[in-house]
Amino acid sequence: MPKPAKSGKTSSSEGHAAPAITAASGVTLDRYDVAILDALQRDARQSNADLAAAIGLSAAPTWRRVRRLEELGVITGYRAEIDRRKIGLGVLAFVRIDTDRDNAASTQALEAAIKKLPEVISCHYISGAGTFELQVLVTDLDAYSRWTMDTLFKLPNVKDLHTSFSLGEVKAGAALPLGHLRAP
What we know:
Elements: E1 20-22, E2 28-30, H1 31-42, H2 48-55, H3 59-71, E3 91-99, H4 104-115, E4 120-125, E5 132-138, H5 141-150, E6 158-165
Helix pairs in contact: 1-2, 2-3
């Protein structure tokens, strides 16, 4: 797999040298890599030929670049975006969980338990009040109430829950911002 040259240029074996930018993670990307990420976030189902045409490279180097981005863990997967309401998931809840932070083993047990809950679509370890912030999808308020009592309160190390409900989405499922990866 071709790797960016140390000079800050991409490998000339792909026929195109472009200034490279090293992200905070240490991964070096050039304008073609960024263009690939941008295009795939908008439409991950497009063919390699269409992707190549969109970014201005031929098919073979485009394919190699996509594979490299996957191997580096920059691209972590592909999935369909589903309208949650059309499949009956009408309630989006934001749940802050308070725990005892002084017990690492209990906190790790709670993390492992949260990862197994399909209703939790996002979980973040947070600063400030609380320990974890969850995004939870359920069918309705009754289902949320049952799920809280039957599941959340039975998890290890949970002291308290604070829930806010989404009253309407302004923006969701957005593509990641890539402006910081473009050359100045």
